[in-house]
Write a structure and sequence with these properties.
about 190 residues; mainly beta; globular; six-stranded antiparallel β-sheet
Length: about 190
């Protein structure tokens, strides 16, 4: 799992210099912020039940260590191996920071009932909600990044928005971020 801490102002240059000296993976010191899946380990294979070959439902995700300065959470699931642009599988934002679990099989509605105030966006297939991995048959397994951002505000973004709109809204508002990666391939 990768972690990235966002710093304000001139601290960014200082932090970048320290990261270069640490010899690690470039992530900031462990903040305790984490995202795990009950169905697969970080870097592991996503079970077929969460893909286009199964039920095409999202796996259950567990959130821990949300930073105190976060007001909401945002989740982006994408496939960076799909081509020139990452293929977006799920956009979810304004999830309350008190949320410790994103349940399996979140409804594909603009306002998911599991978290008051949360909104879902439009994935690359033009649909609302989660769309499971579905790489071309014969490709090497693709990576699927579940990037959870701790956000310092409630985003002023309508349900149904796309990736570009969500990225714009998140710009400058992310206080911490963690990424869980799963893999999936079809024979």
């Amino acid at each position: 799992m990768q972690r990235r801490r966002y710093l304000a102002g001139t601290s960014v240059a200082f932090a970048a210099g320290l990261a270069g000296c640490g010899g690690g993976d470039g992530a900031a010191a462990d903040s305790g912020f984490s995202l795990t899946a009950t169905a697969f380990a970080d870097g592991g294979t996503i079970p077929a039940r969460y893909t286009c070959e199964g039920g095409d439902v999202n796996p259950e995700l567990t959130i821990d260590g949300v930073p105190d300065d976060a007001e909401t959470l945002a989740l982006v699931v994408d496939d960076p191996d799909a081509g020139d642009q990452p293929y977006v599988h799920w956009l979810l934002w304004n999830v309350p920071v008190s949320t410790t679990t994103i349940p399996r099989s979140v409804s594909k509605t603009e306002r998911p009932p599991f978290a008051e105030g949360a909104r879902q966006g439009t994935n690359s297939a033009g649909e609302i909600g989660y769309m499971g991995p579905c790489p071309p048959v014969g490709d090497e397994p693709h990576r699927y990044r579940f990037r959870l951002s701790a956000v310092g505000t409630t985003l002023d973004l309508d349900a149904g928005a796309g990736r570009g709109e969500l990225d714009d809204a998140l710009s400058g508002a992310v206080v911490d971020e963690v990424t869980l990666t799963g893999r999936y391939g079809r024979d």
